[in-house]
Design brief:
The chain has about 50 residues and is an all-alpha fold. About 75% of the residues lie in helices and about 0% in strands. The protein has one domain. The protein is built from three helices and no strands.
Length: about 50
């Protein structure tokens, strides 16, 4: 159900995260760490 949300799917796509991070001058590793934080936030909101 969570991944049914388009924004969640967008946020949780590793490729999107890495590309976005590279555009801002970051590394893939930083992008993955950011992904994990975003995923945790999305889950927190979903679980209330």
């Amino acid at each position: 159900p969570l991944l049914a949300l388009p924004e969640a799917r967008e946020l949780l796509s590793p490729r999107n995260a890495v590309e976005a991070k590279k555009c801002r001058g970051g590394t893939a590793t930083e992008a993955v760490k950011e992904q994990i934080l975003i995923a945790e936030e999305v889950l927190q909101k979903a679980l209330g």
